Records
---
Amino acid sequence: NPVNVAIVGATGAVGETMLKVLEERDFPVGELHLLASERSAGAKVVFKGRHLAVKDLATFDPAGVDIALFSAGGDVSKEFAPKFAAAGAVVIDNSSAFRRDADVPLVVAEVNPDALRVRPRGIIANPNCSTMQLMTALAPIHREAGIQRINVATYQSVSGTGRRALEELGRQTAAMLNFQDPKPEVYPVQIAFNVIPQGGDFLDNGYTSEEMKLVWETRKILGDESIQVNPTVVRVPVFYGHSEAVHIETRDKITAARARQLLESAPGVEVVDERRDGGYPTPVTHASGNDPVYVGRIREDISHPRGLSLWVVADNIRKGAALNAVQLAELVIAE
Ligand code: 2RA
C-alpha cells in the first residue's frame, strides 16, 4: 500500500539525500510532503518525475502522514515530532533530541532492528553519523568477543556540519590558493588545510557534545552500559565521508583473521583490508556517495593482549543519516 511520507528539513543536505534514497530504493511513497522553514517554502523539488513545492512546516497539518522523516535540528524535532506522532505518524528523527530518552528506541538497521518495535511515543531516533558507522562495524565483534573498551578518534567531514560548512571549505581552499584571507565563519578557526579537534560544544568534563554522543549512543545501541568509550572528534578538510581510527579491548581474544572473517559477512559492511599501498578505504576512494560502512587496517593491538585496531569509513550523509532513516522506515512498513 502507498505510504504517505513527510520529510521535515527537505532542503538540507540530509533531507535531500533522504529523498534520493527513497527513490533509489523504490520506497512505496503515496503522498509526499516536503517541509521546511518558511524561508525555504516554495522551493521546487523533483521526485520520480513529480514536481513538488516545499511547504512551510509551521502551517502544515500532519493528519494522514504515515512516516515522517525529520532532519531539521533538535529544536524543530522537539516542537514538531510529538505533533506528527499524535496525528498518527511514525517519526524517524535524525536529530539528537530524543536519542537518550528511555522510551525512544535508538536504532541502526543492521545492528538492533527489533528495538524499533517498542516505540511508545511513536518516535524512533536515528543515531549520530559517527556512531552509526562505528556500531555497524563493531556490533559483530561485540557479539562474538564482548567489547569492554573503545578508544576512537574520528576524522569528520564538513558536510556533517551542513551546507554552509561545505561552502566554507570550498571558499577557504580557493582563498588560500590565491594567497587571500580564509576568514573563518562556520568554524572557530580555518578548516582548509587544517584539522580542528572540536565537534559540537565543550562540556564540563573536557569532552565535546559530539564526542559524548559516541559514549551514550554506543551503550544504548549495544545494550551494555558497562562499555567504556574514549572518543576524540576531529573535523577535517574533507567534503563527504567520516573516518574513524578505532582501538577496542575485548573480553575474549579475537584475532585479526577472525575479525576480518566476521566483518566480511556482516550486513552493511565492506572489508577493504590488504596490507599494501592503497589497500584500505578512504572517503574519496570508497565512501563518498556509497552505502556500505568500509573497514580496513584490521590488526591485533601490539600494546594489548586482547586489543584490536581497525579503520572505519562511511558516507556520513548516506549511511550516517539518510540511508539508515529510510531503512528504519522500510522496517516499520514491513511490520
Ligand atoms: C557532525 N555528526 O558531523 C554531526 C552532524 N550530525 O557534525
Note: The chain has a mean pLDDT of 97.
---
Amino acid sequence: MEKADLLLKVDEKYYPPKEIVENAWVKDYESLYKKSIENREAFYEEIANELEWFQKWDKVLEWNYPYAKWFVNAKTNITYNCIDRHVKNGKRNKVAFISVDEEGNERKVTYGELLDLVSRLANGLKSLGIKKGDRVSIYMPNTVEAAIAMLACARIGAIHSVVFAGFSEGALKIRIDDAKAKAVITATYTKRRGKKIPLFPTVKEAIRDLDFVEKIILWDRDNELSDEYEEHNVVDFYKLIKNSSKDCPPEIQDAEDPLFILYTSGTTGKPKGVLHTTGGYMVNTYMTSKYVFDLKENDIYWCTADVGWITGHSYIVYGPLANGVTSIMMEGVPVYPHPGIWWEYVEKYGVNVFYTAPTAIRMLMRFGDDIPAKYDLSTLKVLGSVGEPINPEAWLWYYKNIGRGKAVIVDTWWQTETGAHMITTVPSYPAKPGKAGKPMFGIEVAVVDKQGNPMPPNQVGHLVIKNPWPSMLRTCWGEPERYEKYWNEIPGYYSAGDLAAIDEEGYVMVVGRADDVLSVAGHRIGTAEVESAIVENHAVAEAAVIGKPNEIKGESIKAFVILKEGYEPSEELKERIKDTVRDVLGPIAVPDEIEFVDKLPKTRSGKIMRRLLKARELGLEIGDTSTLEE
Ligand code: ATP
Ligand code: MG
C-alpha cells in the first residue's frame, strides 16, 4: 500500500512580495477559483468575451463523453486576436518579438510588421495551393520566422505541425508522413553553440519517398542555394512574402476547426499527433498567460522553450501574442557563448517574466552562483518552470539566485495534451518548493487509484482531471482510439499518466510518470521524489532512478548520478548519498545501487529518459529512440 511518510517534506511556504500581490490580475486565487468551479461555463465565457469573435457561440460547452466542443458555432481566427486586434487598438508600433541569437544579433518585429509578414506569407501559401484543412509541417529554427510560419498557416486555416528542428531525418519523416503534409516550411540551417546545423538537407532526405509533399518553402538565410530551387520544388520564404499581397483577411474559423497537430515528445513511446482546435485553445492560452504570468501591457516576456514544443506554441506564440506583450525569442543554447548569456539578456532587455525548464536550471546551477550574480536581474517578477517536477534544491536556487527573493516562482504542470497550464500557484499565492500547487481556474484535479477512488492526502496515486476544459486535445491525429484511452483508463476522468499526491492544503505534488513508478516492498514511489532526495546531497548535480526486478522487494532502486564540478566519485560518496536519501525520505527509498555517470539520456526537450536507462540496464529492447538527444 502507498505510504504517506515517503513523501518529501516540502511544506515550507514562500509568500509573494506585497507589490506583486497588490498589482496582480488575480489577487484572491481562492475566490476566483471557487467562482470558476461553481459555474465553469460562465467563467470561460467571461474570459472569451475579452477576445474578439466574428460570431459568438450558441453554447459554451457540448460534452459528449469523451468528446467536447467548446464555444459551439462560434467563429473567429486566432491570428486576428493575436495580431489585428492589437494593431487596431493602437499597438501597430509596439514590438511583438525580439528575436535574438547567441552573438547578440537581434531583430525586432512590431505588431504592424507581424501583420504584414503573416498576411503576405498566408497569401503566398494560398498561391501555392494550400488551403483550409491542409497540413503544413514546419521545421524551423527558434526565430521569429517560425512564429510567422505558424501564424500564416493559422491565418488561412491550414493545420500546422511544427517539428522541433533538433529532430533527425527519421523522426521528421515519421511526423510529415503521419500528417500527410502538403508543404514543409524550413530554413537552410539553425545555429547552436556558434555552429550552423543544416536543416534543409534533412528535409530533402525526409521527404524523398513522400510524394504528397508538393513544396518546400525555404528560408535561405545566406542566399546561397538558388540552384536547388527548381530541382526540389523549393520556394524562397522571403521572396514568397515579398511577392504576395499584404491584404489577407483572416479565414473565418469555426471554434472547433483544427489549429495544429503537435507530436508529443515520446518519452514513453511512439509519438502521438495531438490535435488542438481554435476557440478553446485560444481562450485558455490567453487566460493562463495573463493570470499565471500576470502579464501586463508593458511587460517584457521571455520563454526559453523552442517553438517545436507545446510550451513554445502556447507560451511563445499564441498566449503572449493574445495578450499583446513583447516577447524575446532566442536561437541558441543557455551556455553559449558563456553560461551567463541568459542573465545577460534578462538585464539587456529588462525581462519581467521568465519561463524555463528544471533541466536548464540544474545545468546552470552547476556553473555556480557567481555567474548570475554579475547581472542586474531586478526587473524579474515572475519566474516559471515547466517540463518536469522541479526538485526543491533547484527551486530554491532559482528563487534565490535569479529571483533574489523579489520574484515569485510559478511551477506549471501541464502537457501537450492539455494545451495550457493545469496546475500551478498564481503569483499572488504562496508557493511550496517542489509542489506544482493548485489547479488552474475551471480545472478540478484529483489523485486516485486505478478504479478512480480518491487517495487520502499525501498518498501517491494517479493524477486525473475531472472535467473537460477548453484547450484539451480533441483527438490524436488518425488514431481516435489513442485519444479515447486518455478518458477510459480511469473511468470518468482524463488520465494524465503522471503520479502525484495532494497535501492537506490542496497543493499537488507531481512525483513522476506512471510508467516510471518504482514499486519497492509494496510502496509506490515516484522517481522524482527519490531523485529530489539524492540531489539534496550537496555533491550531486542531477540524478535519475529506475526500478530493477528484485526477488524480495519486488523492485530495487538503482540511481544514476551526475556530480557537481569539483566532486570525485567514490564508494564513500555513495554511502553519503544513501544517507541523504535515508534522512530525506526514509530507508525504503534508499537506492541499492549507485552509478556515477557524466551524462543522462534525455529527450530533445531535456527530459530524462528513464525508460532507456532501464532497458539498457536490463538488456532489453530500447524501443523508439527518435526523440533521444544525441
Ligand atoms: P510523451 O507524452 O510523448 O511521453 P512528454 O510527456 O514528455 O512526452 P509533454 O507533453 O511535453 O511530453 O510533457 C508533459 C509531461 O511533462 C507531464 O505529463 C509531466 O510528466 C511532465 N511535466 C510537465 N510540467 C511539469 C511540472 N511542472 N511538474 C512536474 N511534471 C511536469
Ligand atoms: Mg506525455
Note: Residues 1-5 have pLDDT under 50 and may be disordered.
